[in-house]
Amino acid sequence: MASPLANPSPEESSTKPAVIALAGQPNVGKSTIFNMLTGLNQHVGNWPGKTVEQKTGTCTYDGQKFTLVDLPGTYSLTANSEEERIARDYIIHERPDIVVAVVDAAILERSLYLVAELLLLPSPVVLALNMMDVAEQEGIKIEPQVLEAALGIPVVPMSAARGTGIQELIATVESLSAEEISYQPKRPVILPGHQVILEKIHALIEDSVPAPYQPAWVALKLLEGDDEMRALMQDALPEATWKQVHGLLYQHEDAILDIAGARYQWIGRMIRAAVVRPKIGQMGMTARLDNVLTHPVWGTVALLAVLGAVFWLTYTLGSPLQAWMGGLVEGLAEGVRNALSSTPPWFANLWADGIIGGAGMVVTFLPILVIFFAVLAILEDTGYMARIAYLTDQVMHTMGLHGKSFIPLLLGFGCNVPAILGTRIIETQRARLLTVLLAPLVPCTARMAVIMVLTPLFFGDKAGLVAWGLVAAALVILALLGILLHRVILKGEQVAFIMELPLYHLPNLRTIGLYVWHNTLAFLQKAGTIILGVSAVIWLLSYFPTGVATESYLTLFGHWLEPIGLWMGLPWQMVTALLTSFIAKENTIATLSILYGDFETALPAALTPSAALAFLVVQMLFIPCVATVATIKQEVGNRWTLVNLLLLLGLSLSAGVLVYQVGTLLGF
Amino acid sequence: MVRALHGGRHFVGRLAALGFTPGAPVTIVRNNGFGPIIVTVRDTQIALGRGEARRILVLLAEGQNGVTTG
Lengths: 668, 70
Known about the structure:
The structure holds two protein chains of two kinds.
Chain A: H1 10-15, E1 18-24, H2 30-38, E2 42-46, E3 53-61, E4 64-70, H3 82-94, E5 98-104, H4 108-118, E6 125-130, H5 132-137, E7 141-142, H6 144-151, E8 155-157, H7 166-177, H8 192-205, H9 215-223, H10 227-236, H11 239-251, H12 255-274, E9 275-276, H13 285-293, H14 298-339, H15 345-382, H16 384-397, H17 406-411, H18 416-422, H19 429-438, H20 445-459, H21 463-489, E10 498-501, H22 509-543, H23 553-560, H24 562-567, H25 572-580, H26 587-596, H27 599-606, H28 609-621, H29 626-665
Parallel strand pairs in A: 1-4, 1-5, 5-6, 6-8
Antiparallel strand pairs in A: 2-3, 3-4, 7-9
Helix pairs in contact in A: 4-12, 6-12, 8-9, 8-11, 14-15, 15-22, 18-29, 19-21, 20-21, 20-28, 22-29, 23-25, 25-26, 26-27, 28-29
Chain B: E1 2-5, H1 9-17, E2 26-30, E3 37-41, E4 44-48, H2 50-54, E5 56-58
Antiparallel strand pairs in B: 1-5, 2-3, 3-4
């Protein structure tokens, strides 16, 4: 944390790379600029102690090295969301050498709002006037040098998606950080109506504002209704003074509208000078596309077509690749088993089945993950994702979810892992958490495979109906749990649906490629290692002490748990099968065939119809596979993962007991 | 044209930042009678839940009739 008095000495600034922070509203192409500047020299992590993604990177220009920090995309800098707090705390506490404010030239007025706020903070600002090509396409003409003169800060016209203006941007940053160009920004002022009150607050707090905050800025934020600054000053001020300040704020609760209004008036003056507007009545490409794509009927048809294409792509491209890679891994496992044939059998088997088998599972996830990540990135980058959220919001709303939760949950039908990773597109943290907690209830292909194998054994020609009913039941439970959790986690607070529909544009290959690369890498590093470890441990448990599955520790464990199984009419073999489904859902079948031999004839005799249905219900709602659990842990942390597991465990077991007891009572 | 916003500090703050300030012209792009509506404010298209839209008080431009938002 830099103290306000500390002036970086010239020696220091010449040895350390200058820090550039990229700020901008969502959908202005900030990530594309970041990717263009840093390429693969970037690190994706989380902001310290937060679940918000942090991207940092380096780039070199003219022999000088720069550190780049991508701030979260925010519309303003009031502490309305975690992203906004992170963005402004970074600028205030870490004092980057330069802030590059990225704006969308096609919606200049709105995107300059954040700039009006950034100019009030201490770091010098360079304006990156991005998406000049989109603006042109929409018929808007802008004169950058006029804007530069009006704002008093350097303005660089560019189009990151087309790769133009990037060099000019970094050159401008370099000359500004070397103080070769003058920096005299013109800042927006507050309307006269609230000027007096602002000065009063300023005078009251002036001597108590803790470093590194500036009194004038804190006074303004207080008047804007900023909760964080309220808490800060309530602590810092003597109680009597705070009461005075609080009284003033209470009288002027509506000041935010005036302050925002004044900023927009200030922006309006800039726009009138620098923008030649399009002719009225001229229809841009976005408006023409949206005539169809947000239409209640045609929009839904288009959405179904897009989703159909996504699943078609996954199965025609992903599944064969997955099978092929699975085959490769099996071959490798056999090779290793043969190579280790001179070692004790448990050692060879551990390597072949436990370790390579586990690694193989991680690897076979990859084709589907890569396809899903690419699809997510394309939908997001073109601007279509926002339309999907708009079209599905009505349905998702009933569960207290946002329209943006739709796509991640839908991906869950393929595999829960990309579903949980896909929740990153949801901006609100709590809505995102809720979606992550619900995602395991979406039946994935592996779960469905187990259902498809077992249901015909128990229910014969009614299997289709039963399977359909199971899926419907899982989704109904998902919706009910959603409504319940919404009340508990979000405390019934409605997530306001306010979402920008960005202009459509062609996807940028580099942005998509890097998105796929980073997310796949993160999956391999974090979830992959956990999956490998757990599957090796479970394998050991199913092998030792004698090397015979029916005498293993895992079986012993199944015996211990038999009392619970009996409430559902399930023998220990079924309980053990359920336990092994934790490694991968399809293991249920493998375990049953080890424990029963010919399970296809043995099972119908071993279970009553009620017990069979109870088993299928538990299987449907049971804790997800280790890959999903590892991903949940990566995304929401230990505490919520534990909550989720206990929730699903309780839910599945009580549903199983209920089905068995009611079924038995009815005589099935 | 926006006349006033009703709601908590956070809600008003968010909408104001997006450009819904008194005097700003707002056009309804799509209103299906159910689900969220789409409006244009300051050159940006914004989807708003019906509950949210109801809290934005607007003044109808001349020549328009019928209640639209709020």
